[in-house]
Amino acid sequence: DTRSPECYELSKTGYYQRLKLPNTSVVFVAFNEPLSTLFRSIHSVLDRTPPELLHEIILVDDGSDVEHFGKELEDYIALLPKTKLVRAKERLGLMAARVYG
């Protein structure tokens, strides 16, 4: 648990009940990003988010045209829990790609 001691104490008193919080989806939009940066971000969400609060992670490939965004990315994402890859056929831009995902 990475929370501060004060926050942890509040959770024991009922002030902060994470089981009552809604679960969430996290959307990453990427265009020709280095895989190491992308994987670090995804693992950060998986490692730091309580599992009961994380519904899914959606990675939207916004029309990338670099080779490493092909099979290598698909194979790695397939190994991760609660993570899926959505590919746009052409570049949509940040907001449109987020809605697409």
Question: How would you portray this structure in words?
Answer:
With 101 residues, this protein is an alpha/beta fold. 39% of the residues lie in helices and 20% in strands. It has a 3-stranded parallel beta sheet, sandwiched between helices. The two termini are 30 Å apart.
Defining key terms:
alpha/beta, three-stranded parallel beta sheet, 4 helices, 3 strands, single chain
Class derived from helix and strand content: alpha/beta
In round numbers, the mean pLDDT is: 83
Spatial gap, N to C terminus: 30 Å
Helix content percent band: 25-40%
Q: What's this, in brief?
A:
This protein is of the alpha/beta class and 101 residues long.
List strands and helices in order, with pairings.
Blueprint lengths: L4 H9 L10 E7 L4 H14 L5 E8 L9 H9 L3 E5 L6 H7 L1
Parallel strand pairs: 1-2, 2-3
